[in-house]
Amino acid sequence: MADERSKGCVACGWAREQEEQCSYSSHVKLFYGVSRRGTWSIGSDVIMKEHLNEGPKTEVDTLTYLAKPPISQFRRLYVTGWTATGDTLSIQERIPVQTLEQTWPSSSESQRIAVADQVVGFRNQLRSITWASMGIVDQGPSNPGLTFFDNEPHGSFHSDLELWEALSLTLHDPPRKTFPQEPLEYLKKEMSSCEPYVLTHCVFNLGKIIVNEDLTGLLGWECSAYSTIWHEYVSASWRRTEAEWISLLQRRLEFHGDGSNLLC
């Protein structure tokens, strides 16, 4: 029992016996965590995100970039970031709205379609922002999870050929690993054109989409990067969670002519 009382909280390090020695109640609270990332509320108006030192962290750079003219359609948010012992922390304004995940059960089919169409429109705005290479907004390596599966930074890539050469090494890199040459050449021939490289949010899941009846914006720009033009469509095809929403999003992408026609 004594050990339990002296054992610190995994989030804040505060032990039960320390709690009992004071009447302090903090306004800084951990309200979301996934993998090795955590998000804290600081009062009601500010949040702090903490990411352990695992690959590129792009959210602060991306939001700062999107706040600059002429990209006037994006809401300007207070955001700042810094590193501590290799980890990345950022402080942002908290947006007092609901996510689509919260409103989905009570929304009608027409409301869901309307939001999906707005997400496609928002995605098209992002697609108007292009770059000559595939990577994060400061031109460094990105972590393109749908392209490479080792969860490591790759790039930046300045052409489809550079991207293919890096991809092929994940299959054929003698003597460590080998892959038959004929199928490898076939894969190269059938690889869809990836250019132009467009700014991509990367994760259009229900918990990232903020709504106030209509689409208000997107949360979670940690994985954003200049990526392949077909990234969002393939992402919608690949995911097996939130099946109802992903199926709807994929259909609306196709309806607006933004989907399978790119994969040829």
TrEMBL record:
The lineage of its organism: Eukaryota, Fungi, Dikarya, Ascomycota, Pezizomycotina. It comes from the Eukaryota. InterPro entries: AGP_Transferase (IPR051678), Aminoglycoside_PTrfase (IPR002575), Kinase-like_dom_sf (IPR011009). This is Aminoglycoside phosphotransferase domain-containing protein. It holds the Pfam family APH. Gene3D superfamilies: 3.90.1200.10. Residues 83-255 form the Aminoglycoside phosphotransferase domain. It comes from Penicillium frequentans.
